[in-house]
Amino acid sequence: MAVEMQVVAKFDEIFGSEGKKEIFFTPGRVNLIGEHIDYNGGYVFPCALSFGTYAVCRRRDDDIFRMYSMNFEKDGIVEFSLKKLIKTDVWADYCKGVIDTFIKHGYKIEHGADIVFFGNIPNGAGLSSSASLEVLMGTIIREISGLNDKVSMIDIVKFGQEAENKFIGVNCGIMDQFAVGMGKEDKAILLNCDTLEYDYVPVKLDGISIVIMNTNKRRGLGESKYNERRASCEAALKDIQEAGKKINHLCDMTMEDFEEVKKYIKSEEAVPRVRHAVSENVRVLESVKCLKENDIEKFGKLMNGSHISLRDDYEVTGKELDAIVAAAWEQEGTVGARMTGAGFGGCAVSLVKNEFIDEFIKNVGEKYTKETGLEAAFYVANVGDGSRKLGEC
Ligand code: GLA
User: Fold this and answer.
1) What residue ranges of the chain are covered by domains with CATH 3.30.230.10?
2) 314 Cα–ligand 1 center, Å
3) pLDDT reported for residue 196
4) What is the rounded (10 degree) CA torsion for 378, 384, 388, 391?
5) Cβ distance 58 to 114 under 8 Å?
6) Ligand 1 mean position to 105 CA, how many Å?
7) Could you read off the pLDDT of 81-128 as tens digits, one per residue?
8) Of all atoms in ligand 1, which is nearest to the CA of residue 164?
9) For residue 300, which of 55, 85, 172, 206 sits 20 to 30 Å off, Cα-Cα?
10) Which part of the chain is CATH 3.30.70.890?
11) How far apart (Å, rounded) are the C-alpha atoms in residues 79 and 234?
């Protein structure tokens, strides 16, 4: 049975089958290159995946939401009124945050809904399960509130980020919500995170696949470290601006600029953080050029360079990501490999020649287990479309 039909069956079981139901889907994402620079005004290069979060929804006449997640069955039905949106530390907070953001932006939300969710993105693996839920909720609210011609997908993307920043308290950038909202089949998105200008670049690679490697090490302390890194970039930017350099973001600098201004950065620890931000931005632009010129080997080398910079300068990898990426680098048929997402565990991404994929999975899996005692999971990624309504039933 197709995934969405399983969710419909669960909906009927929990909330009853009567009335019109709508089915929605929002993907997860993988970032090919451009890590930890969305909040530094840099370029990123993510794509949406074919797996993600599904929702079956029936609008209600009152202002009550009843939500159920097939991924968190022990939480049961989470019920709340749209007049009382309070964080309660369950998965539904992401949904509440998005509804709250719509209301704060002046949109009239009058209807609640019964909704069943199901996601096949591994949680906490750095493939944006939370951004997927936020943008999904935004897509649902827009539809059930009759706002399709007033709220664009880019508005939903921004509301998703705002919900995560203000309601959830994670100071994330715009990349994840943008990728899952605006993704396109077989295309990666080159996104300028300062201006939100974007371009779709084909990533259907001849004889090469995107293989996602899940370390199965959950991010854990990742969120506080994430906010710490962001704060340290902001402080360094302030130091550089106060020294008279006219920039709005760290990624406005070239490597030469960085060499010139690094003496103004007051915290010694922040110097390599800034070097990462500047060098990663340069790598993204080079990567896209390589892809357009079909120079995949060089693209792979830039991915490797990105991992090294995240490991040594930005220090967000950790032993599991380093072990899995190092194992990938050793394999015949690997074009490039790096961590993806926030880091501190979660997933890495690699480009692998098709004829070597089976061997790659076997060898990397064995080596990784030997070094960490953990079992990795592998997914050959299909690049899919962004958030959308799938239909009605
Ligand atoms: C998380 C955040 C994004 C981005 C990445 C790192 O996924 O949500 O905004 O900063 O980490 O590139």
Assistant:
1) 3-202+384-392
2) 13
3) 98
4) -90
5) yes
6) 24
7) 999 999 998 999 999 999 999 999 999 999 999 999 999 998 778 899
8) 8
9) 172
10) 208-381
11) 39
Residues pairing with 117 in the sheet:
55, 69
Q: To test ligand 1's pocket by mutation, which of 38, 194, 310, 349 has the most ligand atoms within 8 angstroms of CB?
A: 38
| Closest by Cα among 126, 140, 130, 59 to 91 | 130
Listed residue (169, 208, 210) closest to 28, CA to CA: 210
**What is the mean pLDDT of the segment spanning 164-178?**
95
Average pLDDT, the chain: 96
Distance CA 328, CA 100 (A): 43
Is residue 342 within 8 Å of residue 175, measured between CB atoms?
no
Query: Which of 139, 120, 138, 135 has its CA nearest to residue 177?
Result: 135
Neighbours of 249 (CB within 10 A): 17
Fold topology of 3-202+384-392:
Ribosomal Protein S5; domain 2 (3.30.230)
Report the alpha-carbon distance of residue 108 to residue 111 in Å, rounded.
9
* Homologous superfamily in CATH for domain 208-381: GHMP kinase, C-terminal domain (3.30.70.890)
How far, in whole angstroms, is CA 188 from its chain's centroid?
13
Task: Specify the DSSP class assigned to residue 228.
Answer: H
93 is catalytic: no
Which are the contacts of 256, defined by CB distance < 8 A and separation ≥ 6? Answer: none
